Amino acid sequence: MQHVTDYLNGIGTLVERLPQEEIAGIAEALRDIYRADGVIYVCGNGGSAATASHFALDLAKGTRGSADQRRVRAVALTDSVPLLTAWGNDTEYARVFAEQLAAWYRPGDGLVAISGSGNSANVLEAVKLVNARGGVTCALTGYEGGKLAKLATRSVIVPSDDLEKIEDCHMILCHLYTAYLRREIALE
């Protein structure tokens, strides 16, 4: 029982330490992408890939207002196994997200890059491509932020070295952003 209490208390303490100003900055960036009718792309590896898929689903479905309102356009770059493996085979794994973005990214679009360590090569390559095209890049990371926190135009670093708790906080943030966009869309 003590393990349960300790884990949940640890999450609560960590949530209280999250940087609210940076969190709000990403929320506003996602709102601006929506208002520009852009696509929000999301990527990550491992558990962060699962978070990326879940977040894209929530953005596309969980933000909808009335039937006649425009919807959030969101795509998880993690979701096409054939495309991921083709790019990984034909180039290198570090290019699997950037190559997709090279075809799909348009002005007004944005990227949410999720990496616990902040050092995933394929996530960094995706951020570099969107940055080079003048787009907004939002990072969710942990530990000390890695290279990703410095590379992205907006970053939230979960101040922990416990990957499970970092990933828990990333999912909380994704739900926060979904709820924020749903509210913003309802007010239009």
What can you see in these coordinates?
With 188 residues, the protein is of the alpha/beta class. The chain has one domain: Glucose-6-phosphate isomerase like protein, domain 1 (Rossmann fold), CATH 3.40.50.10490. The chain is 57% helix and 13% strand. The chain has eight helices and five strands; from the N terminus they run H-H-E-H-E-H-H-E-H-E-H-E-H. It has helices at 2-16, 20-35, 47-62, 81-90, 96-104, 121-132, 146-151, 163-186, and strands spanning 39-43, 73-76, 110-115, 136-141, 154-157. It has a five-stranded parallel beta sheet with strand order 2-1-3-4-5, with helices on both faces. Strand 3 (110-115), helix 6 (121-132) and strand 4 form a beta-alpha-beta unit. The longest helix has 24 residues, at 163-186. The radius of gyration is 16 Å and the shape is globular. The model has no long low-confidence stretch (mean pLDDT 95).
Series of secondary-structure elements, N-terminal to C-terminal: HHEHEHHEHEHEH
Structural class: alpha/beta
Q: What is the count of DSSP helices, taking H or I runs of 4+ residues?
A: 8
Average pLDDT confidence is: 95
Give the strand tally: 5
For this structure, the quaternary state is: single chain
Strand percent estimate? 5-15%
- From the alpha-carbon coordinates, what is the Rg to the nearest angstrom? 16 Å
Give the biggest sheet: 5 strands, parallel
Q: Which architecture would the CATH scheme give at its second level?
A: 3-Layer(aba) Sandwich
Number of domains: 1
The CATH homology group name: Glucose-6-phosphate isomerase like protein, domain 1
Approximate shape: globular
> Spans with pLDDT under 50 lasting ≥5 residues?
none
Strand order of the largest sheet: 2-1-3-4-5
Q: What name does the CATH topology carry?
A: Rossmann fold
Distance between the termini: 47 Å
Query: What percent of residues adopt helix (DSSP H or I)?
Result: 55-70%
- CATH class equals Alpha Beta
